[in-house]
Task: inverse folding
């Protein structure tokens, strides 16, 4: 898995590519989020457009990143999940608290970035 980072105002956009399958190489995502929080950035959009597949450990990494961000009074949003990944997010109900926005711009500009990390209702 590879990560490309972009900063848009006070929101970091992390563009992932490859597979999100857990394991040591995916600790880089958690470490990246920890680094962003240390730099004062606590709202993150993860762009999954180039992620071909995600399994349960990969899903756990996303949930762990969300918890880190919420603990830092921020939030996590997902953008551009492929159909396969979106199905996994829906089956596990993770989509209910991270969403799946159709573009990074929609995720970044959507209302409701809050200190609770909850999506707007």
Result:
């Amino acid at each position: 898995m590879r990560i490309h980072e972009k900063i848009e105002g006070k929101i970091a956009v992390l563009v992932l590519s490859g597979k999100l399958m857990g394991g040591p190489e995916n600790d880089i995502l958690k470490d990246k989020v920890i680094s962003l929080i240390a730099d004062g950035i606590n709202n993150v959009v993860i762009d999954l457009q180039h992620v071909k597949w995600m399994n349960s450990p990969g899903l756990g990494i996303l949930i762990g990143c969300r918890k880190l961000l919420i603990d830092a009074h921020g939030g996590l949003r997902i953008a551009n999940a492929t159909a396969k990944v979106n199905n996994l997010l829906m089956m596990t109900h993770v989509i209910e608290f991270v969403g799946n926005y159709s573009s990074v711009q929609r995720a970044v500009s959507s209302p409701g970035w809050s200190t609770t990390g909850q999506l707007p209702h």
